[in-house]
Every structure is written in structure tokens, then in C-alpha cells.
Amino acid sequence: MNNQQNIPGIKVAEEVEAMRGLLYWVQESFKLRSGIMALGVGYFASVVKIGANQGLALSADGVGSKVLLAQLMDKYDTVGIDCIAMNVNDLICVGAEPIAMLNYLAVQKVDDYLMEEIAKGLYAGATLANIILPGGETAKLPEIINGVKIGAGFDLAGSAFGLVALDKIITGQAVQNGDVLIGLGASGIHSNGFTLARRVLFQEQGLKLAEKIGELGCSLGEALLEPTRIYVSAVMEILKSVKGVKALSHITGGGLFNLTRTDKAVGYDLDFWPTISPIFNLIQQAGKLPLTKMFTEYNMGVGFCLTVSPGEADKVLAIAHKQQIPAWKLGVAREDQERRINLKPYGIVSKDKTLHFVEGV
Question: pLDDT tens, 69-128?
Fold first, then answer.
């Protein structure tokens, strides 16, 4: 698998160094059951062998600081969708079909309303992902969980499981020059970059959650709390109908650099990018942030990408549109040891391997 730069959630060299000890012991654990790992750390999900040609795919993730907005708005029925989405959207990147997810809910205090509303969201997400929720854990941790609203503090995370044939695992190993990159539309910010968003929108600009903003077509809080889109149905149909799927990328923290988390060293030339959603424009303007920062922090309107054979691109687009997901041809792949990305519409290219963009090239 790839070097540590491509480990999920690690964005910069300093974070790679800080995680070195943790990763060492995680990888040491593989020796406890030698030969069981089919795909270890470094990709969107891991895979362990459970049969002759059967793999169990696993992913783990949480909602992050988006839960603070749910507390402030006293609205908890969408974060469960986010939790499901962040896990299953990673799982499908290896070609696995999600089947189940366990959740972990830590609360400041037991609150019937809060916990049932979160459960409603988990059920809604499970319905969209076509998975079951066979169990989980709830913990009351008042000394640890505080939040931003007295009594309403909570954290929500989970771990999803799926099945994939061992000879069908996708890690970008077959990407070739000229393969087409298809982008699937996001539903908003999804579940990344909320610490930055809250700082620039609320602390620096003094905006309010209930504030109606014309270009958003809703209140600021409603736009920010929009749940993460779940791509399972569309991607499963694509995998069953299209033979030439070479790589799948969940565009989360790290932005476009999630495209470079492939087994084969590839880069991308992007000739097109859809109109940037108003919520991202608002964040950028509020924080006076360069586009380079925005494209490494947020999905910028594209929440999932597929790299496919040129002859299959139109079929992939048709399936996405049938599933009512906006989709576009963004550009093409090229074999590149430096894994560079060229975002031509904005004059932005990746300069090196440090996960930064430079403009004007």
C-alpha cells in the first residue's frame, strides 16, 4: 500500500510524524493473525480475509464537530445520517457492499429526546445505505462530554462492515493514462471542516444560525446541518453494471488530495469543476480564505469520485443521474509518481507532496 501520506485523516507531514507510533503498533497487530489482512491501513477502508475469496471490509469514522451545531440548533435527527454516510462512503471505495454498522454514542446525560432523534437519523441513514444496525454502545460520560449546550453534549461515531470478493478489491491499482474522472455532487459541507467554518462564520463574522441568507435559500444553520450524501446505491449499481471502474474516492478532509490515495501513483488533469455551492463561497468570503485552502479543506461540491475507463464514462453518468445525483466528467488520470493534481479552471496545481496547492501555474 502507499506511504503514510495517504493514511485516512492525515493531511500534512507533521500529522504523519505524530501518528507514527500509533501506526507502528496497529501494524504490529497484523502479526497476531498472520495472513489475514487483505488490505491494511492506508486506504479508505481495510479488508480482512474471511473465506476462500471473501473479504470483510471495515471502516470507522465519526461526525466530528458538526455535532456542536446540532446541539446549538436542538436538532439531532440528521447527524445519524452523517455518521452512517462517513462510514459507508469510505467502505464502498474498496468495492465493498456495506451490510451493517455499529455505533458508539457518548452523552453528557441521558436524554430521551436527544437519543431517540439521533437514532431516527441512524435509521434514516441505514435505509439510504441499505444496511442494518445490529448493535452498538451508549455511554454516559459527564466528566468527558461537555458540548456547547448544557446537558446536550454528545459525540457520535461508528464502524461499518461490508463484503467484497478478494479479487475484486479496488485500490486504484489499475488506473491508466486517459481514464476519466467522474465527480458525484455533494449535498453541502458534509462532515468536514466545521471547526474552520464555525470560526470564520460565527466568531469572526458574528453570523447567527437562524439568520436567513438569500443565496443559501434557507437559514445558515440549516445549510450547515444538511446531512452528508450517501452514495451507496449509485455506486453499487455502477459496480454491478460497469466493468471499467478503476478507483473510487470519498472526498472528505484533505479535499482533492483524496484522489491521490491510490495504490498506483497517479495524478489528475481536471478540465471542469461544477459551480461552487453558495455555502462554500460564504465560508471563503467570511474567512478571506484562498481557494487553495478551500480545495484542501472541503469537498467544494463534489463529494465522491470514480475513475473509469473512457468508454464507460457516459454509462456511469447515466446511472448517477438516474439515482438523482448530479455528476460530471471532471478530467482524466495520468500516471505520475508525484501524484500531482492540475485544477485548470482555477489555475491551481499541486506543488509537491505536502498537500498544499499553489496558484498561478
Answer: 999 999 999 999 999 999 999 999 999 999 999 999 999 999 999 999 999 999 999 999
Q: Give the least confident one: 196-210, 250-264, 277-291, 345-359.
A: 345-359
**What is the average per-residue pLDDT within 146-152?**
89
Q: Which of 92-101, 148-157, 255-264 has the highest mean pLDDT?
A: 92-101
Candidates 287, 301, 73, 64; CA nearest to 197 is: 287
Q: Which residue(s) pair with 348 in the sheet?
A: 343, 359
Q: 249-287 burial by CB neighbour count: b if 16+ within 10 A, else e? A: bbbbbbbbbbbbbbbbebbbbbeebbebbebbebbbebb
Q: Edge-to-edge, what's the strand order for the sheet holding 154-165? A: 37-39, 46-49, 54-62, 154-165, 97-107, 132-140
The domain 180-359 belongs to what CATH superfamily? PurM-like C-terminal domain (3.90.650.10)
pLDDT, one tens digit per residue, over 48-74 is 999 999 999 999 999 999 999 999 999
CB-CB neighbours of 221 under 10 Å: 18
Q: Tell me which DSSP letter residue 179 carries.
A: P
pTM of the prediction?
Answer: 0.93
Angle, helix 313-322 to helix 232-241, in steps of 10 degrees: 140
Q: Is 107 helix (H, G, I), strand (E, B) or coil?
A: strand
Which residues, at least 6 apart from 109, have a Cβ–Cβ distance to it below 8 Å? 140, 142, 151
CATH 3.90.650.10 location in the chain: 180-359
- Which DSSP string do the residues of 4-73 spell out, in sequence order? GGGSTT--SHHHHHHTHHHHHHHHHGGGGGTT-EEE-BTBSSEEEE-SSSEEEEEEEEE-TTHHHHHHHH
Residues of the chain with CATH 3.30.1330.10: 36-168
Among residues 266, 92, 235, the alpha carbon closest in space to that of 164 is found at: 92
What is the H or E stretch that residue 329 is in? strand 327-335
**Chosen CATH of 36-168 out of 3.30.470.20, 3.20.20.20, 3.30.1330.10, 3.40.50.620:** 3.30.1330.10
CA gap 247, 237 in Å, rounded = 15
Q: How far apart are CA 24 and CA 18, in angstroms?
A: 11
